[in-house]
Amino acid sequence: MIRLQDIRKVFNAGKANEFVAIDQVNLAIDSEMITVLKGPSGSGKTTMLSILGCMARPTAGRIMLREREITSLPERFLTGIRRATFGFIFQQLNLIKGISALENVMLPAYPDGEKRSLLQKRATDLLTLFNLAHKASAKIEWLSGGEMQRVAIARALINSPAVIVADEPTAHLDTKLSMEFMEIMQQLKREGKTILIASHDPIVHESSIIDRIVDMRDGRVVSPEIRS
Amino acid sequence: MGAFEKQRNIVDFTLSSLGRRKGKIISLGTVYTFVIFLLASVLFFTQAIKREAALLLQEAPEMTVQRLEAGRQGSIPKHYGDSIAAIRGVQSVRPRLWGYYYDSLSEATFTIMVNDELNEKPGEIIIGSAVKVRSAAGAENRVVRINDTFPFKTYDGSALLLKVKGILPLTSELEAADLILVSEKDYRTLFAVNNDHATDLVLRVRNTKELTTIATKIVQLHPDTRPVSREEILRTYEAIFDWRGGLIIVTMAGVLFAFIILAWDKATGLSAEEKREIGVLKAIGWETADILLMKFWEGVSVSILAFILGVFLAYLHVFVGSALLFEPVLKGWSVLYPDFRLTPHVDAYQLATLFFLTVIPYTVVTIIPSWRSATIDPDSVMRT
User: Fold this and answer.
1) How far does A228 lie from chain B, in Å, by closest CA?
2) How confident is the model at residue B338 (pLDDT cuts 50, 70, 90)?
């Protein structure tokens, strides 16, 4: 589904603090699988996830999405692709405080100009799916950690994306919530979603639902292991 | 439909964003409202007072002839009118008697004018709506009513008691507020003016294009006179009120600048929370243009609200509160002049100018820092 060819990402190029985050990476991500990027801090997992999710452009190399090259597309088109194809779950959740859980879920769909009543119904359905219908109008800061995490997942799903991208999703969760997260991912995989997770949490990469682990170190792919 | 729903969604989110930053929005809105209030007050005041002057002069004669005595206005012999009436183009000449009267009890100056209708009824007066009387030193000034007796002090110190027989209708307060109409006999008793003299002569002229020629002929006939046309008076009024409005703006400039700098600082500085929020929106699929649209609606809603509130308060200040804040500068002779309420009048063109000079720059100014933040890479939120 996504193919990276000779990807290199350099920060602060040409300056004294130049830093090569990703170097010579070739990787193909298959559809309807859960792929985990594993590695220590600074290994380039988050940068890889940003590039795979069309959030950042590589310094060199090519990105193919469904065999269409998207590397040099203007920002506007890239944003459109990102909004339609990817749903993001961030390490810090990045929910917007002061507005309701329902509004948080609806936010990624606002620029599409979908009829508000339809959008509201889809968002409510998602919250119902995660047992949060009764918290729809509650302000996000009033919710518990687990509820906030489920709102963040619901937000990632609002545009019905083909790919879910999660960066260290269990970093701030206890074991119970981490297991709950993995169960939801399994459910999404069954529904045909492609899932990309960057994590160094054993609960994630030792989980039986994982199809593939990409081991990273110093910006390079060490072993793209595929589980049977 | 999609474009409309998109705008609606973004406006909804903007409005809920405003609610989340109450402190900033309220302080900014207050400062903004105050600036609009000051500017709109000056605008309303100068416009209304100029209109008062124009109303006042609408019915005025085309030309007034004064006599100068050592460079100052003196009384004019009535017989000057005979020779002036003989000038071609002059329709009629009428001697006028008027002057100012300072009432030490109520501490106000009134305009006294002779009215022909009262000549048959000496001892009676008709007064303006703002004329007040104080019966004794230390007492409160009170509005004069019909059949009240108004005590005057004549030129030689003796008392002259005149009875109020009517109150003037309120067309232009500038004209009528401080006016007292008296009979010719009472006027001459009050000020000791000779029977063959008048304060000035007023002329009706058939064709206003001939005013300059007529004025030249009058000066040739009577070199000690000064003809003044209605247009000249109107221009003088306008110049004085424009100058006073400008003076207010200049004296307020320091305050206005301080407020504008504060508003600028508040409006342009994005907090860390706001920057983070912009990063999140970009990461979840908002384009730079969507972020700018959101900031545009934010600027528009704050400034329009402040504009409406500021204009409304200015209206109350000028037309209900008699421009309390800068009355001394704008009216000029406020110490001597009695109470005065302007007839409400708002010039849509000037209001539109004020709108475009405040709302548009503010909206642009709030968009610029957001544009800087909106162009950051969306992956920046992955690193925080």
Assistant:
1) 31
2) very low
ipTM: 0.89
Contact criterion met (CB below 8 Å) for A122 and A200: no
The answer to whether the pTM exceeds 0.80 is no
Q: What is the pLDDT of residue B335?
A: 41
- Indicate the pairing of strand A220-226 with strand A212-217: antiparallel
B271 vs B112 pLDDT, higher one: B112
Q: Phi and psi at residue B172, in whole multiples of 5°?
A: -125, 120
Residues with Cβ within 8 Å of residue B132, at least 6 apart in sequence: B106, B108, B141, B142, B143, B144, B338, B339
Closest CA of chain B from A89, distance in Å:
9
Strands A86-89 and A163-167: parallel
What type of residue is B70?
A
Across A143-152, B31-40, B115-124, B239-248, least confident range? B239-248
The answer to whether residues B125 and B162 touch, using CB atoms and an 8 Å cutoff, is: yes
Dihedral (Cα; A47, A50, A53, A59), 10-degree rounding: -80
Nearest CA to A213 out of A202, A227, A203, A200 is that of A227
CB–CB of B279/B354 below 8 Å? no
Of B58, B65, B60, B56, nearest to B93 (Cα)? B65
In a mutagenesis test of the A interface, which of B9, B15, B286, B384 is the best target, namely the one with the most A β-carbons within 10 Å?
B9
